[in-house]
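Help needed: design a sequence for this.
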C-alpha cells in the first residue's frame, strides 16, 4: 500500500501568506539572498525539464526502430498473445453467442493478463484495489495469481470483441481490426463492432468506445440496419452504454432509414427515383427492407417528414405494401405457435395504415398496431375447463370466457401486463424484450457485472425520441 501525507507549505513559499513587518537592512539582505537562491533553483528545474524534453526525441540513427514501439511489441506479443508470467487470469463466461471460446469451450474463455497492465482499465483498477483492501483486512492474499470471472451479462459481448479490448491495454495493434473494411456491411463485422463497444464500455476504455461507436455509425447499411435497430432499441441500451452513445447510434440509424436507404437502393439499381414505378425492382427492394424493421422504427420513419416521399398518397401506398408483407409473414407461421424468435416477435400484432388529409404539422400517414391476443390459448384452457365441469351451463361458461378476455389485466406474450387500451386505441407495444435484452444492464457499474437473472428490466419502458427511448406506451387491448 502506498501511503500519502500532506503538509502545510513552508513559510515564504508560493501560495503562503505572510504578515507584513518592518524590515531591517540585515533582513533586506537576507531576503535578497533568499530570492536569488530561489531563482537559481527555478533555473535548474527549467534546465532539467528542457534536457528531459530534448532526450525524449532521440537523435536520428540512435535506434533502428522506435524504442517505445519495441516495448509495445514486446508487451503485446509476449505479454498478451503468449501470456508469459501472467498474474491475472480473467474468465469470460459467454452468453451462447459468437464464436467458440479460445480454449475450445463454448462456455468460458480464459485470458492471461498482468495486473500492472490491466489497471490501465478503471474497471480492473477498481476491482484490484478492492481486493487489495480486503487483503489488508484479513482477506485473501494478493501476492499470488488472481482469478476474476466476468459473468455472461450481455449477448453482444463475444470473446473476439473482449479480446480486442484487452489487447488495447497492451498496445494499439488490435484496433486495426476495427477499421478493416474487408468485411464491411456484413453481419460478422456488425457483431464484432457491437462486441467491442460492449467490452470497451465494460472496461471503461473511452477512446476505444469512441472508435467503436464511430465505426458502427459508418457501418449502418441495408444488410446491417436491422442488427443495429435491435441493438439500440433495447430498453436498457441507454442505461448500459450511456445517453450520449445511445443518442449517437439511434440518430445514425434514423438518418440512414430516412435518407441513406433510398440512396443505396437507387445506386444499386442505377435509377434516379425509386418512387417512379411501384412495380419495378427498386421499389420492391425498398418495401422488402422496411418490412423487416421493428414496428417502432417502421412507424417513426414512415411517419417522419425526413423520409422524403413525393406525396402523402405515395407514402400511404408504400406503408400499405409494407404492412401487407408483414401480415403475410405473420399468417405464414403456424396459427397456434408462440413467437419463438426476435424476428417473429417483431411482426406480432395486427397493423393498419391510416391516411388523414389537411394536416400541416406532420405527415398524413399513421401506422397503428393492436396488441397481441392469444385466442387459441384461452380457448384451449376454456375447453379443458368444460371437460372437468360437464354440469356447468354453457351460457355461464361463455360469459366466463368473455370476462376472461375482458379482464383489465391481460397477460402479454412476454409475461408483462397492461391496464387496458390507450386513449387513442392505437398505441404500439414496446420493442420485444427477449431474455437477451435485460442482459446489457450494469456495464457502467464499477463492481463486476451481475447475471441477467438478478436484474429487472421494464420491457415497456421507452424514453426520449427514438424507438427504445420514447415515452412509456401501453399496449392497446
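Sure. Designed sequence:
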Amino acid at each position: 500500500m502506498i501511503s500519502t501525507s500532506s503538509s502545510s507549505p513552508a513559510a515564504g513559499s508560493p501560495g503562503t501568506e505572510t504578515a507584513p513587518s518592518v524590515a531591517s537592512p540585515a533582513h533586506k539582505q537576507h531576503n535578497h539572498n533568499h530570492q536569488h537562491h530561489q531563482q537559481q533553483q527555478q533555473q535548474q528545474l527549467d534546465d532539467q525539464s528542457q534536457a528531459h524534453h530534448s532526450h525524449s526525441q532521440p537523435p536520428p540513427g540512435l535506434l533502428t526502430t522506435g524504442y517505445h514501439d519495441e516495448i509495445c511489441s514486446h508487451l503485446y506479443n509476449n505479454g498478451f498473445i503468449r501470456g508469459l508470467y501472467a498474474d491475472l487470469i480473467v474468465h469470460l463466461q459467454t452468453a451462447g453467442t459468437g464464436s467458440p471460446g479460445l480454449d475450445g469451450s463454448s462456455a468460458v474463455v480464459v485470458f492471461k493478463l498482468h495486473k500492472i497492465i490491466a489497471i490501465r482499465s478503471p474497471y480492473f483498477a477498481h476491482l484490484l484495489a478492492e481486493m487489495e483492501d480486503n487483503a489488508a483486512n484479513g482477506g485473501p492474499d494478493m501476492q499470488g495469481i488472481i482469478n476474476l470471472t466476468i459473468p455472461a451479462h450481455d449477448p453482444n459481448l463475444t470473446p473476439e470483441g473482449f479480446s480486442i479490448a484487452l489487447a488495447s491495454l497492451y498496445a494499439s495493434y488490435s484496433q486495426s481490426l476495427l477499421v478493416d473494411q474487408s468485411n464491411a456491411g456484413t453481419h460478422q463485422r456488425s457483431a464484432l463492432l457491437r462486441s467491442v463497444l460492449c467490452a470497451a464500455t465494460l472496461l471503461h476504455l473511452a477512446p476505444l468506445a469512441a472508435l467503436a461507436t464511430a465505426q458502427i455509425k459508418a457501418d449502418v447499411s441495408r444488410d446491417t440496419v436491422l442488427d443495429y435497430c435491435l441493438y439500440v432499441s433495447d430498453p436498457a441500451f441507454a442505461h448500459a452504454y450511456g445517453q450520449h452513445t445511445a443518442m449517437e447510434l439511434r440518430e445514425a440509424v434514423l438518418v440512414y432509414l430516412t435518407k441513406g436507404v433510398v440512396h443505396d437502393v437507387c445506386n444499386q439499381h442505377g435509377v434516379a427515383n425509386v418512387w417512379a414505378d411501384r412495380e419495378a425492382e427498386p421499389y420492391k427492394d425498398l418495401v422488402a427492407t422496411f418490412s423487416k424493421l421493428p414496428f417502432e422504427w417502421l412507424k417513426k420513419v414512415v411517419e417522419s417528414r425526413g423520409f422524403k416521399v413525393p406525396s402523402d398518397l405515395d407514402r400511404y401506398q408504400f406503408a400499405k405494401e409494407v404492412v401487407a408483407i408483414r401480415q403475410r409473414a405473420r399468417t405464414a407461421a403456424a396459427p397456434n405457435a408462440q413467437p419463438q424468435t426476435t424476428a417473429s416477435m417483431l411482426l406480432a400484432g395486427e397493423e393498419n395504415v391510416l391516411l388523414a388529409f389537411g394536416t400541416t404539422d406532420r405527415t398524413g400517414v399513421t401506422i397503428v398496431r393492436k396488441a397481441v391476443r392469444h385466442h387459441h390459448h384461452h380457448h384451449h384452457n376454456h375447453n379443458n375447463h368444460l371437460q372437468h365441469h360437464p354440469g356447468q351451463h354453457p351460457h355461464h361458461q361463455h360469459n366466463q370466457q368473455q370476462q376472461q378476455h375482458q379482464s383489465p389485466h391481460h397477460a402479454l406474450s412476454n409475461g408483462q401486463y397492461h391496464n387496458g387500451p390507450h386513449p387513442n386505441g392505437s398505441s404500439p407495444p414496446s420493442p420485444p424484450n427477449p431474455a437477451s435484452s435485460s442482459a446489457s444492464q450494469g456495464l457502467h457499474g464499477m463492481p463486476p457485472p451481475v447475471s441477467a437473472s438478478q436484474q429487472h428490466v421494464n420491457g415497456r419502458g421507452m424514453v426520449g425520441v427514438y424507438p427504445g427511448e420514447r415515452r412509456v406506451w401501453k399496449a392497446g387491448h
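The chain has a mean pLDDT of 72.
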